[in-house]
What we know:
This protein is of the alpha+beta class. 31% of the residues lie in helices and 25% in strands.
Amino acid sequence: MITNRTYTVEPWSVRETSLNLDLLAQSESVFALSNGHVGWRGNLDEGEPHGLPGTYLNGVHELHPLPYAEAGYGYPESGQTVINVTNGKLMRLLVDDEPFDLRYGRLVKHERTLDLRRGVLERVCEWTSPAGSTVRVRSTRLVSLTQRAIAAVQYEVEPVDDSTRVVIQSGLVANESLPDPDGDPRTARALQSPLEPEEHMAAGPRLRLVHRTRRSGLRVAVAADHMVDGPDETTMASESNVDVARFTVTAVLEPGQRLRVRKTVAHGWSSTRSRPAMGDQVEAALAAAAHSGWDGLVEEQRSYLDDFWARADVEVHGDEEIQQAVRFALFHVLQAGARAEQRAIPAKGLTGSGYDGHAFWDTEMFVLPVLTYTEPRAVAEVLRWRCDTLPAARDRAAQLGLRGAAFPWRTIDGSEGSAYWPAGTAAFHVTADIAHAAVRYAAATGDTEFERGTGLELLVESARLWRSLGHHDHHGVFHIDGVTGPDEYSAIADDNTYTNLMARSNLLSAADACERFPDEAARLGVDEEESATWRDAAEAVHIPYNDELGVHEQDSGYTRHQRWDFATTGADQYPLMLHFPYFDLYRKQVVKQSDLVLAMYTCGSWFDEHCDEEQIARNFAYYEPLTVRDSSLSACCQAVMAAQTGHLRLAYDYAAEAALMDLADLEHNTRDGLHIASLAGTWMALVAGFGGTRRDGESLRFAPRLPEKFSRLAFRLQFRGRCLQVEIEADKATYTLLNGAPVTIHHHGEPLRMNGDGPVVRAVPAPPRRTAPEQPPHRRPNVR
Ligand code: BGC
């Protein structure tokens, strides 16, 4: 059980009622606001104290050389790191003659609330300065989901007892200094002063700064406008220099009087547009926001979110923490993808600079499944971004002596950014993950235009990669040797089952798509012979199995390896990668994160065809005692398969781990940004786990079963123009087609025709009885 919660448990908000400076960096991630284009960390309005200042623009990065002690052919030479761009959040405050700084004086009251329905961060605090003046400060902040360049702050100050002179300095600041990284490879490198000034302007309430990154040559423009409401004698001034533009408001306030500043900030960036064009772009965005006004922006935000929640909400009865957590998760997943518009969704979204702001397979295998069924438009955008990066992926494949496209393991601009090739370049599965996401999106939406264009191109180029990466042995069996699967504690292995099954499905989907769209396929140079070789490879793919143990192997020979010595590994030696050399992890049976278990979920139809339920349960039980969950991507996958195999109690504990990853800071690194894949995994654990939801071609199957603690779970899915509602209670499931054409779905194997003429109710069968599997010592999930 998680005790000492930092945030109160409420269904629709996340609230902090005291300020703990040690947890400031963590709360900056939790309270981050973003729309997928602009991201503002939840830094305090006054800028200091801070954990990690952060303002991000999706795609804005700097390049740096990747140094190698021993270089090798094909090593990526240039790395990419997200940069902290011009900060428009800043509202410094002077109270009489002292700076409002919570490290001094006395904080009488402090509360910050992330409102998941209104999409705003609110703050109320009361502070007494060291000299004894007490002021009340309220702020409301939003990053607009409807106007993607725009963020806005309303900042209000009032004296509590005496007449007080206050000065608010609203700023735009570039090149803020950043704390040094702590040596954990998962944190970002700090690039100090990444922006070169090009233009600064301050005219009355309007401010503007334009900068350019040195190596990547990206131009960043940020502009602000202000509306002031205060006593008649309020004075205003503004000034700017290369890295700072400032609007200053001064007033003497009597108790009962208030000074209010409403600030709108517009952000833009480009690799091609000129300085004047960028200046105009942000000024135009400000004009559009002014047209809506503050109230308009707040209303638009609310109505955007009302629509989203009507499609996407998940209701949990019986566990208030998970109820809150799943909404928090959905909110942040939406924020990460809503307006990404042909850009990546990084592993941390735009909530922090962890992992250098890179996007991984997290996007396609964790985040996009959620968005496919809740905000499908965003999925097409992300996949279009992948498609835009095909030239780089083709070049990478060619450099590696392969055909088709080899997508990067980690990237911002589409080129490979991983300097560690055994867990980077060799993790080829990312290419099949992208293809899988394209197939999932097309099947779940029926978007044929996408399928014919972006989808087909992604499928063809990825199929070509697999065909050239694998080979047929003299028996005709198709092998993919020397690759790294999802489990990063194994590398350069032969026939990784996850990779082989994902490649198989990629090859078959590509061949099918070429048959459906022969003209477009011909334009991509695919002939019948080529697609026949894809089918041959797919049908002959090797899936390693150990007859003696009766389990599928993670890769060929995996089960023969020595088991990790869990008994002598201390609780404080996790994550193992920070305490043991990779060479030792690689040669032993120890699983960082679900791999074979994930394959049973993502390639479930292959397992359904080739094995019975007992085999799946045996596989799950075999990998449980080996899986240490040193990646936050694991718990949700284990939750899904624990639920499928009837271990509902265990599934519940894993679901809670995924759900509370950031709210309870389970991995102690939420400060670097949120674990967006784990947040998405919360939805996956509930919908695919307890809902037993699986896509079967163009139809949906459900096999719901609740853990004892839940009295009800309800969710909605968007599917091929329909909205389907699923409500599960202990003994029954109710399906309702809320809108859209009739459809056939399945409940525990039974076909149900949904005509839209009312709910269909079915009994939920009891789960099979199975002995609960063990986990490695110290790595059992918390029992709730
Ligand atoms: C995991 C990867 C993941 C990355 C970013 C790593 O720890 O092993 O699977 O893509 O984190 O979340």
